[in-house]
Design goal:
The structure is a homodimer.
Chain A: H1 17-24, H2 28-35, H3 43-56, H4 62-69, E1 74-79, H5 85-100, E2 104-109, H6 114-128, E3 131-135, H7 141-149, E4 153-157, E5 169-172, H8 174-188, E6 193-197, H9 203-218, E7 228-230, H10 235-246, E8 254-257, H11 260-272, E9 282-287, E10 300-303, H12 306-321, E11 330-333, E12 336-338
Helix pairs in contact in A: 1-2, 1-3, 2-3, 5-12, 8-9, 10-11
Chain A binds a DNA duplex (16 and 16 nucleotides) through helix 2 and helix 4.
DNA sequence: CTGTTAGCGCTTTCAC
DNA sequence: GTGAAAGCGCTAACAG
């Protein structure tokens, strides 16, 4: 513990409000008023306090203020990992929005470990934070409602699985986004369009699948189950799935991968097999993460407004913390197709 | 403000240590002892307390504990932006290390705005955090010493510019890493090797330049100033610099870009000009961020132990906070060359 | 072993 | 306008 006397005014150690009060010859209450910009303070007192504050570089201790005020100005954020542009963009958006509210973010990567997620959530609730943003939580609805039961406020970003109507949440328009992607492929003339999905049961998978099937059905393409391969949202999974699709007797001329990493896996396989993208095979991804713009060829993909989602979640949470009722608990942000180089008409 | 009575035991609102004490028929001191796992408590008292704790789901309020204990268990982290794998990997490493110490991270993106960085640092010092990690700070040595003067503990990760010997810091071996990269190119037979640097004055630039020049000098290659182009560590900057180098009367057969983004810019230009990488031009980057492994061709680059740097910084900070003296204030972690597809012997 | 008591630093009635 | 005083929830001496 660093304990040093404050003999000189160099602020070797921080002043307390008590010391400022003494130095300024007023009470702590007055100092508090000045610090918080209250109007009911004489100009004389204000001057005296400000002089000391300036001279010694006093700033109020937020922890103490938090204890007294009943809130900390801190928001917890749990997420699987950070070093994936999908997450870091969301976080950056959220951090920016929080900054505007003069709040800060306590970051808690869970590394996909469920146990850790639980521990972290507990800690967050222990008075360290006022509320939380849960990104892609592994949490079950049960565990989430425990939080609610404790009066803890939070907003879910992109839930893995369906959650209750009453749980605040923000996500992107999976289904329509997927529909758009497929329509783009259809418009180019593709009819055999493969799909590489995420784990079944996940909202992202089911909804995008719905969009995919819907778009196909809309133009009367007969659904072919062998064209739908389940995967895991990682590049290697994308490679495996691509192999499977390309080994089909009648392989697809285009593949719609349910996220960018899967799409990158597909492109890697295509390259290894000497297939030209988009000449021999068109590829579409989902997310529009940074990688989509730097791979060769650049990837046509469905853009999720990631930063926006982060900002929106914060704005929902802030309202929740202010005790305001929120009209729409489930917010769905629109997606848009970003056409780049990985798609073209099928080779005749 | 959410204020609710706690009529039922559903924990609609959190219990205080006082309430637990009453419920268990003991004093708050005893509850505190039990909670903190002290040994000097009778089995009987412990049971009583644990029963209440379990039944009502009591957890200690960290803010209050922090006020009383004099520390918060929170560490601030400032960094320019998050959505760049360079940063997110460091952060992830740091978060992991902090987790092991049961500490959390308060994230503060500065968006390269100096003013914001100052504000954020001030806030962090206001009792919210015990110390901080400053990544790529824009801060001058002066401002940093203000922090020190206030008794605030922090460690710098990868300082932009030279900082005092006394300021704790961790970075990677820029110079030797750059040397290795150039030696690799030299070994492949290249003699005209261009360099695309970062802003001059930055440690990363100057040190890597030193490594580059040193390696060249070691084999007696006559230095050619026109082969060194200053840039800004971004892809577009890399493109511009590459244009300049390739437009030279006697263009280089290999380019050593001082980070991966610059290298990607170089590859984009090469592609646009119809040059084969590595056939017509070899390219080496620096950092080994995720992108290096997914571009086409995959990028040969100097690997910085980013996650390790995050972890190391935390371990330094933890020691600082514990009041321990640190032997080596400046820690330099080793780099290693990762050879991928973007380098080959020069075309005859 | 256990309770009493005094803070930690700040905010906020409530009188004067 | 301003100060005294009572907390916010927890920890830690200090008695017993």
């Amino acid at each position: 513990m660093v304990v040093e006397t404050d003999r000189d005014g160099n602020g070797r150690t921080r002043l307390t409000i008590r010391q400022v009060a003494d130095l300024a010859g007023v009470s702590t209450a007055t100092v508090s008023r000045v610090i918080n910009g209250r109007a009911d303070v004489s100009e004389r007192a204000r001057q005296a306090v400000m002089r000391v504050v300036r001279e010694y570089g006093y700033t109020t201790n937020r922890t103490a203020r938090g204890l007294s005020a009943g809130h900390t100005g801190l928001v917890g954020v749990t997420l699987p990992i950070l070093h994936h542009s999908y997450f870091s963009v969301i976080i950056d958006g959220a951090a920016e929005a929080l900054y505007e509210h003069d709040m800060r973010m306590v970051l808690c990567p869970t590394h996909h470990e469920h146990e850790r997620e639980v521990t972290l959530l507990e800690r967050l609730m222990q008075g360290t934070t006022d509320g939380a943003l849960l990104i892609l939580p592994e949490e079950s609805g049960d565990e989430l409602s425990t939080l609610t039961a404790h009066g803890y406020r939070f907003v879910i970003i992109d839930p893995l699985r369906p959650i209750g109507e009453r749980v605040p949440m923000v996500s992107a328009a999976h289904s329509s986004g997927a529909g758009e992607a497929v329509e783009h492929l259809l418009a180019l003339g593709h009819r055999r369009i493969g799909a590489i999905t995420g784990p079944s049961g996940w909202i992202a998978t089911e909804e995008r699948l719905r969009g995919y099937r819907g778009a196909l059905a809309a133009v009367g393409v007969i659904p072919d189950p062998s064209l739908e391969v389940e995967s895991d949202f990682h590049a290697v999974g994308g490679q495996l799935a691509a192999q499977q699709l390309l080994d089909l007797p009648d392989p697809p001329t285009a593949i719609f991968a349910f996220n960018d990493m899967l799409a990158i896996g597909v492109m890697q396989v295509a390259r290894a097999r000497g297939l030209q993208v988009p000449g021999d095979l068109s590829v579409v991804g989902f997310d529009d993460t940074f990688e989509a713009s730097i791979v060769t060829p650049t990837l046509t993909t469905v853009r999720q407004p990631l930063a926006e989602m982060g900002r929106m979640a914060v704005s929902q949470l802030v309202r929740l913390l202010a005790g305001q009722r929120i009209e729409a608990l489930h917010v769905e942000l629109g997606t848009s197709l970003v056409v780049r180089e990985s798609t073209a008409p099928p080779r005749r």
